[in-house]
């Protein structure tokens, strides 16, 4: 038998009908002459036939009409929409993949939240500057928020009595907003 | 003259329910065999087999004929069975009880009581040994019991190469023989 | 190695990913030590229709003020440590003191004092987004008005 270890795979192929005619014949002749290979063939055939016997005898107990009626019932039954969605999801995301999806989604959400709070562009949700306190020392001051450009403007009006030492010429009274 | 599977599929796609019924009639036992081989539980296997044909009915309009009908239906069956296997929450004791009942009922038809006893033990041990295989190895060994399925067909069903089918079969058979040496 | 084999791989990798996420979040929330403050002093007027090309990035904001011309007078940046302050010289004999106060949720609170000569003209505390800005304007200058763009970025 030891010298025929390499023949086991061929015997399996022969048993499964995967060998060519010439290869089959050659192996058959060898098995007739080799006790070890003959025994290997016998065990494989027994294994296969036992399993086939178990499954076949079980399958033969399934009568067609009751089976067909059950299939018809499913075909005619109105399924809730979420059942189809669940079935689709189970196909696309079997449990093994889903086990990765859940932590991956959590990590992505965390990363998104941290990045979103870390990076501030002009179009960010909190892009407006917030004026928390203001003291114009008695002068008129205006606050403007322009939404398109997310601009906060603090406008200090020129002091009428000329207290503003930096006043040189009369300037326009203020922006046109 | 008996219609081919392809012709029956075309009739199904045209809305002929009787054509679908004929297809179910041709394949329901073989499909059940495969599913039962994977799940080892009668009720679950019946449920999944019915679901297989239901899904096939729903998808038949999209069936292009790129593969044969039988590899297509077995593919649906194997995928559903593997999903069901993952959801199966039966403990080993429940499994053993359902298999004991199955084997007892099969033993009723035997003629030789001594051969029956030995064979029954082999069948029981074989069933347990197969259940210890990984789903991939279990699938190839069960599909190989279906008459007429080549390595190419099995590869198409499982989405792997013929070489992979061959090596998985070899591995599975070696494992089973190692466990069942005393009974073979 | 035995421990690795025993612990479910998914649990281990999920823990690693979670720690990485926490590290990222932690980094983002870390208090910066310095703030780079940039002050651009701009002359806004109706004397012409010119728009200084160097102010391209501020054009949309400046157009809000509805003046016809804008010219950059001065552009100065300084790194200011937390709880420190710096004074910027502003055209027209003015000065602007800026003091970063606190950082929270990626926003910087700035205490700003505009002074004309020795007199305080305006004190304000403004909270701006990191790398954001606000406009302070109004003091007259050279036939127009002085407009200051005050921006800050965490370092």
Task: Describe the structure in your own words.
The complex is a heterotrimer of chains A (177), B (184) and C (155). Chain A is mainly alpha-helical. Chain A folds into three domains: 2-59; 78-118; 125-177, no CATH class. Chain A contains six helices and three strands, in the order ααααααβββ. Chain A is elongated, with a radius of gyration of 42 Å. Chain B is 76% helix and 0% strand. Chain B has nine helices and no strands. Chain B has helices at 5-13, 17-39, 42-59, 69-87, 92-107, 113-131, 135-143, 151-158, 162-180. The termini of chain B are far apart. The relative contact order of chain B is 0.11. By secondary structure, chain C is an alpha+beta fold. In chain C, a hairpin with a 2-residue loop joins strand 7 and strand 8. In chain C, the strands form two sheets. In chain C, strands 2-1-8-7 form a four-stranded antiparallel beta sheet, with no helix packed on it. A four-stranded antiparallel beta sheet of chain C has the order 3-4-5-6, with no helix packed on it. Chains in contact: A-B, A-C. The interface between A and C is large, with 58 and 59 residues. Strand 1 of chain A pairs antiparallel with strand 6 of chain C, so a sheet runs across the interface.
The topology string of helices and strands of chain A comes to: HHHHHHEEE
Low-confidence sequence ranges of chain C: 1-7
Structural class computed from helices and strand pairing of chain A: mainly alpha
Regarding quaternary structure, how should these chains be classified? heterotrimer
Strand order of the largest sheet of chain C: 2-1-8-7
Helical run tally of chain A? 6
Number of strands of chain A: 3
Largest interface: A-C, 58 and 59 residues
Distance between the termini of chain C: 42 Å
Radius of gyration of chain A: 42 Å
Sequence stretches where pLDDT stays below 50 over 5 or more residues of chain A: 120-124, 163-170
